[in-house]
Write a structure and sequence with these properties.
Length: 202
């Protein structure tokens, strides 16, 4: 019975690997935005920490993809149905996020505040983590959602009241979101390390 509960399907392993690749990509995007805001500051060199994490995510994700073939495939109808359900809802939320970003950008541009484009995108990204937390039953998503949403709202408010300059807003938002994606990628690496190793790899 214990052995049965420890069985991890290959699709779950590949899902973790895909997640790490995605976090590497999004960390590079938000880190690049932060760099744009810090390009005239010595603090830009601190962003090298994100580059190191990106490399770690890519290396670990590649390794996971290689060993995933040694894990069992989904065999029960219940597992297959659950996998399809989660995939469907992931697609719906991902699509809604894209639509939300387009709507958000159009709103801030049409009300005469195009400078709010980046924090508006960050806000939509933060909000999309809430339903993801419910679907995948991961508490970490709630933390990331709250952190990202607060970073975005703070950037919007401080930019509107002129407390933040454009460059400061980019540095603040980019760094805040890069921290979130780095934490998410690190969480995935920790999950990957706790996976039972497949017999042929031992």
């Amino acid at each position: 019975m214990d052995n049965k509960t420890n069985i991890i399907p290959a699709v779950a392993v590949r899902s973790i690997a895909t997640g790490m690749f995605m976090m590497a990509f999004f960390t590079s995007i938000w880190g690049g935005i932060a760099f744009g805001g810090l390009k005239d500051s010595v603090f830009k060199y601190a962003l090298i920490i994100f580059v190191l994490f990106i490399a770690a995510f890519i290396i670990n994700a590649t390794r996971l993809f290689k060993v995933s073939k040694y894990y069992p495939k989904l065999t029960t109808e219940a597992d297959i149905a659950e996998g399809k359900k989660m995939g469907k809802w992931f697609g719906i939320i991902f699509g809604a996020e894209g639509v939300g970003i387009l709507i958000g950008i159009n709103i801030v541009v049409n009300i005469g505040h195009p400078e709010l484009t980046i924090p508006t995108i960050a806000l939509i990204v933060g909000l999309h983590f809430y339903p993801m937390a419910k679907i995948f039953k991961r508490t970490v998503d709630y933390y990331l959602a709250t952190w990202t949403t607060l970073v975005a709202i703070t950037a919007i408010v401080l930019t509107l009241n002129k407390t933040m300059s454009q460059s400061t807003m980019l540095a603040f938002t980019g760094t805040g979101l890069a921290i979130a994606t780095t934490c998410y990628g690190t969480y995935m690496m920790m999950v990957a390390r706790r996976l039972p190793r497949p017999l042929p790899v031992l």
